[in-house]
Amino acid sequence: MYRILICDDEPDIVYALKVYLSTQKEYELFTAYTGKQALEVIAEHDIQLVLMDVMMPEMDGISATIRLRETSNIPVILLTAKGESADKVLGLDVGADDYITKPFDPLEVMARVKSQLRRYTALGAQVARTDRYVQGGIVLDDGDKSVTVDGEPVALTPSEYGILRLLMQNPGRVFSTSQIYEQVWNETALGSEHSVAVHIRHLREKIEINPSEPRYIKVVWGLGYKMEKGDRE
To answer: Which of 36, 48, 164, 198 is the most buried (most CB within 10 A)?
Structure first.
């Protein structure tokens, strides 16, 4: 059973999303109408995914995401209006994993929810593994899903972890933004490649000493990104 929180200040939108998601018997749905209410629900229940509107009274979705990221890495999908491009970028910058633009396509809602739950479940799975990747000062242990940089633990969202793992598994190989999106998000890249660039910028801020002059994740102009080859174990 997956516990999903739907948060929007418009009751009609909350109702519509509940109708879409209630077709899946394995989903237990919770609702909230402000960012503050969302944080209260998350504190009281073991929520696995949040669908959250950006523009809300009392506490907006961006502020709520920032607060949530202080203690949790559960997937957050932002609900944005068609013209809120700046809010989409800002939301990804502060730790949201994806966004859906209103008005919703029910099939898109279901696909994005399932994709985020798959990756979150894989990240949290307690299956014993021995995969360990080292590049310079970065150590990614895929057995316990941990990342350290120069010996210090680093908290990554599921999307950031997936990107880093992909690049560390293939040092020196260049991946286009479409390839990264399709391998990490497990779905076809249809105009969502910009999300990759935002997540990589956020990832660099966590693993690079100087994100503006990255040592590890390099851009290959016109082609994509790669993990710089270094000493490995």
So the answer is: 164
71: CB partners within 8 A, 6+ apart:
none
Cβ atoms of 49 and 74 closer than 8 Å: yes
Residue-level pLDDT, tens digit, the chain, 233 residues: 899 999 999 999 999 999 999 999 899 999 999 999 999 999 999 899 999 999 998 899 999 999 998 888 889 999 988 666 777 788 888 888 898 888 888 898 999 999 889 888 776 543 334 478 888 889 898 878 899 998 899 999 999 999 999 999 888 899 999 999 988 988 887 766 688 999 999 999 999 989 889 999 999 988 999 998 754 44
Q: Where are the domains of the chain?
A: 2-124, 132-227
| Sign of the alpha-carbon dihedral angle for 146, 151, 155, 158 | negative
CATH topology of domain 132-227: Arc Repressor Mutant, subunit A (1.10.10)
Look up the pTM and report it. 0.60
Question: Which CATH architecture does the domain made up of 2-124 adopt?
Answer: 3-Layer(aba) Sandwich (3.40)
